[in-house]
Amino acid sequence: MDALNFFANVDWAEIWLATVDTMVMLFGSLFFTVLLGLPLGVLLFLCGPRQMFEQKGVYALLSLVVNILRSLPFIILLIVMIPFTVLITGTSLGVAGAIPPLVVGATPFFARLVETALREVDRGIIEATQSMGATTRQIITSALLPEARPGIFAAITVTAITLVSYTAMAGVVGAGGLGDLAIRFGYQRFQTDVMVVTVVLLLVLVQVLQSVGDKLVVHFSRK
Amino acid sequence: MIEFQHVHKTYRVAGREIPALNPTSLTIEDGQVFGLIGHSGAGKSTMLRLINRLEEPSGGTIIVDGEDVTAFNANQLRGFRQQVGMIFQHFNLLASKTVADNVALPLTLAGGLSRSEIDKRVTELLARVGLSDHAKKYPAQLSGGQKQRVGIARALSTNPKILLCDEATSALDPQTTASVLQLLAEINRELKLTIVLITHEMDVIRRVCDRVAVMDAGQIVEQGSVADVFLHPQHPTTKRFVQEDEQVDEGEQRDDFAHVPGRIVRLTFQGEATYAPLLGTVARETGVDYSILAGRIDRIKDVPYGQLTLAVTGGDMEAAFDRFKAADVHMEVLR
C-alpha cells in the first residue's frame, strides 16, 4: 500500500507521453546531427594541421564557429535560435521547436569527435590508399571512414547521451519530455515520486544507449 | 626502367629548408631487384616515395618507362600509381576489412572489373602468397609475416610493373624475414617485376638484390652489383654496413692478428671458384704455409662466395700471390 501511495502523484499517461517526446527529440535530433556533423567532422579533419588539404584559414574559421557553438550554454542557444527555428519548422514550440536547437547544439560537438576519430586512423593507411591511385573521395569513403568506424560509433553514443541531457532543457520552449517533467513536477512542485520515475527512466535510456553503442564499437573494431 | 635525373628534395620545416635528397641521378633497369640501403634519415625513404610521387620532388625529373612522372597531372598520376605496387614496414592493411577485401581494394578503387573477376583475382593472389585459408580473417588475426604477405598480394593485385618495398621486413623476425624475401625473389623471377626496396640491413640486400645503392646524408655514396659492393666496399658507410652484417670489427681484428707472423692477405672467391681446391694446390706448388685467420662462405642471392683472411709464411710467397691472382680470385694484401 505504501509503495503505491508513494507514486500517488505519478500520472502514467503523462509519463508515457513524455517518454515518447524524449525519444522523438532524441532520435530526430541525433539523425540530423549525424547527417550534418559527419561531413563537418571530415572537413575539419581534412583542413586540419598536416592533413591532406591543410587550409589554415578554413580550419581556423570552422574551429571558431564550432568553439563558439560549443561554449554557448544550451539553454541560451535554445532562446537565441527561436527566430531561426520558426524559419525552419514554422514553430518555436513543442518537439518540432526543440529539434533545430538540439541539432545546432550537438553538431559541433559531434563534428569534433568525428575529427578526433579520423585523426586516430594511422597515416600509413592514407599513404597506402594514395599509393593505389585512389581519389580523395575514395580515400575518405573506402579507407578513412571504415577505419574510423569504431570511433565514429563511440562518438554517436556520446552525442546521443549528451542529447538526452539537452532534451531536459527543451521544456523551456514547451517541448515536454522526461527532463521537463522532472523539472516542472519533481523539482518545482516537490513531487519526489515524479522525480524518481523520470530519473529512473532517463537512467535506463542512457544505459541502453551506452551498451548498444559499446556493442557496435566492439563489433566494428575487428581487433 | 626508372631514371632519376638530378632529382633533389628539400623540406620546409619551421621556415627553414632542410635538404632530404641532394641532386641525384640513378638508373634502375627493368626486372632488377634494386636495393637502397642507408641509415634512417639518409634519404632512402624519400627516394622511394619520389618514384610514385607520394613525395613531390623539389627539382629534377623522374622517368619511368620513357614517361616523365614529374609532369603527370592528378589523373595521370592516379593511373600511374595503379601500375606501381607498394608494401610497407607496418603493412598498412585496413583493420576494418577482411584479408580478401584488403587484397581487392586496389581493384575496387581502380574500377573496371566485375565483382566475380575481382574475386577470381583475389583467390589467385592469396594462393600465390600462401594465404588461401585466411581470406575471411581480419588483419588483427594474422601474424606479422602473414600481414606482409597480404600486403604483397594487395600490391600485386593490379599487375604492376614495379613493386616498391618500404622497409618491408624491418618489423619481422629473422625467420619470417627470410620467407618474405624468398617470396619477393620468387615474384621478381616469375612475374619479371622490377623491385625497388629500401632497408637498413645488408643481409636483406645480400639475399635478394641484384644491384645496390648505398645512401648517406641525402646522397648515393656507392653503387654497383651487390657482389662488388658487398665484397669490396669502398665508402666508410658501406664498410660499416658490411661489418654490421658480418659482426666483425676490422680494427679489433687488426689488433688480434698483430702477433701472427708472415703476410696477411684476404682472398675473395665468387661463383664456381668458391668450390675449387685452390689453397692446397698453391701451397703444395709454391711451398708456402698458411693459416686461416678469419673467413666466411655464404651466398649473394644465388651466387656462392667465400672470403678468407690468411696468414702466409715461408716458401715462394710472390709466386703464390701470382697464382691466386691468376685463378680468378680477388686478392688484397692487408699486411
From TrEMBL, chain A:
<feature type="transmembrane region" description="Helical">
    <location>
        <begin position="152"/>
        <end position="174"/>
    </location>
</feature>
<keyword id="KW-0472">Membrane</keyword>
<keyword id="KW-0812">Transmembrane</keyword>
<feature type="domain" description="ABC transmembrane type-1">
    <location>
        <begin position="19"/>
        <end position="213"/>
    </location>
</feature>
<feature type="transmembrane region" description="Helical">
    <location>
        <begin position="24"/>
        <end position="46"/>
    </location>
</feature>
<dbReference type="InterPro" id="IPR000515">
    <property type="entry name" value="MetI-like"/>
</dbReference>
<protein>
    <submittedName>
        <fullName>ABC transporter permease</fullName>
    </submittedName>
</protein>
<dbReference type="InterPro" id="IPR035906">
    <property type="entry name" value="MetI-like_sf"/>
</dbReference>
<keyword id="KW-1003">Cell membrane</keyword>
<feature type="transmembrane region" description="Helical">
    <location>
        <begin position="88"/>
        <end position="111"/>
    </location>
</feature>
<comment type="similarity">
    <text>Belongs to the binding-protein-dependent transport system permease family.</text>
</comment>
<feature type="transmembrane region" description="Helical">
    <location>
        <begin position="58"/>
        <end position="82"/>
    </location>
</feature>
<dbReference type="Pfam" id="PF00528">
    <property type="entry name" value="BPD_transp_1"/>
</dbReference>
<keyword id="KW-1133">Transmembrane helix</keyword>
<dbReference type="InterPro" id="IPR051322">
    <property type="entry name" value="AA_ABC_Transporter_Permease"/>
</dbReference>
<keyword id="KW-0813">Transport</keyword>
<feature type="transmembrane region" description="Helical">
    <location>
        <begin position="194"/>
        <end position="213"/>
    </location>
</feature>
UniProtKB/TrEMBL annotation, chain B:
<dbReference type="InterPro" id="IPR018449">
    <property type="entry name" value="NIL_domain"/>
</dbReference>
<dbReference type="InterPro" id="IPR041701">
    <property type="entry name" value="MetN_ABC"/>
</dbReference>
<dbReference type="InterPro" id="IPR017871">
    <property type="entry name" value="ABC_transporter-like_CS"/>
</dbReference>
<feature type="domain" description="ABC transporter">
    <location>
        <begin position="2"/>
        <end position="242"/>
    </location>
</feature>
<keyword id="KW-0547">Nucleotide-binding</keyword>
<dbReference type="InterPro" id="IPR045865">
    <property type="entry name" value="ACT-like_dom_sf"/>
</dbReference>
<dbReference type="InterPro" id="IPR027417">
    <property type="entry name" value="P-loop_NTPase"/>
</dbReference>
<keyword id="KW-0067">ATP-binding</keyword>
<protein>
    <submittedName>
        <fullName>Methionine ABC transporter ATP-binding protein</fullName>
    </submittedName>
</protein>
<dbReference type="InterPro" id="IPR050086">
    <property type="entry name" value="MetN_ABC_transporter-like"/>
</dbReference>
<dbReference type="InterPro" id="IPR003593">
    <property type="entry name" value="AAA+_ATPase"/>
</dbReference>
<keyword id="KW-0472">Membrane</keyword>
<keyword id="KW-0029">Amino-acid transport</keyword>
<keyword id="KW-1278">Translocase</keyword>
<dbReference type="InterPro" id="IPR003439">
    <property type="entry name" value="ABC_transporter-like_ATP-bd"/>
</dbReference>
<dbReference type="GO" id="GO:0005524">
    <property type="term" value="F:ATP binding"/>
</dbReference>
<dbReference type="Pfam" id="PF09383">
    <property type="entry name" value="NIL"/>
</dbReference>
<dbReference type="Pfam" id="PF00005">
    <property type="entry name" value="ABC_tran"/>
</dbReference>
<keyword id="KW-1003">Cell membrane</keyword>
<keyword id="KW-0997">Cell inner membrane</keyword>
<keyword id="KW-0813">Transport</keyword>
